[in-house]
Amino acid sequence: MDKPIMAKATAVWLVDNTTLSFKQIADFCGLHELEVQGIADGDVASGVKGFDPVANNQLTQDEIEKAEADPLHSLKLKFNPAALGEEKRRGPRYTPLSKRQDRPNAILWLVKFHPELTDAQIAKLVGTTKPTIQSIRERTHWNIQQMEPIDPVALGLCKQSELDAAVQKAAAKRAAAGEVMSDDERRKLVSTEQSLAMEAEPKMPTAIEGLETFTLSGDDKKEREVDADSLFNLPDDTDEDEDDDDKR
Predict the structure, then answer these.
(1) DSSP E strand boundaries for 40-182
(2) Which domain holds residue 48?
(3) Most confident stretch, 73-77, 83-87, 239-243
(4) d(CA 6, CA 8)
(5) CB within 8 A of 78, min separation 6: which ones?
(6) What is the enclosing helix (H) or strand (E) of 83?
(7) Domain boundary pick from 179, 197, 215
């Protein structure tokens, strides 16, 4: 941690018990300098009890004395091995309500363009659950027909560095396991910036899919050649009238 716990209470104690400048206290506690001045004037945190950072193993007395002697010295938090990793996020990523409706589209993008990512990695990137990812992989999601793949970075669901790190980790894991990626998967193994710069793949209607290589042979062409005039050659009505007169 780079800031003390109970920062405002720590600032109250430092104001009351040291000759540190307002800026030194503000920088150490993560507060604004005017807020520390308000604490000294009694306008801010008037009911807050001071929290001793020395007694609570966050600051040494030598560090305080050094900072009091040099107004330009910045207080440094005492190293505490037990506090390592305390700021690391635990559990699934929190997604704001305004962006939760975009998560299925982001999952679809990750499944389509980065199939090497595991469900756990996708869940960590966009803050979702494994059953949701599985339903999108199997195209059984209730809204799958209305979904479209959208880059989670563009949606603000994760950072570019986080996505690239996950992709590289997945690729390294597959390589270590001896799995060989197909050419199509290898082409997809690019950063988001590169994928966004690529041109969209041409879409073909499903009704004519598979007929793109269909051709007519020379004989078939001759058989199918039709004279336009013959389509409009109607029977001669005069001949029919003469036949009727002869019968009479």
Answers:
(1) none
(2) 7-83
(3) 73-77
(4) 6
(5) 57, 58, 59, 60, 63
(6) none
(7) 197
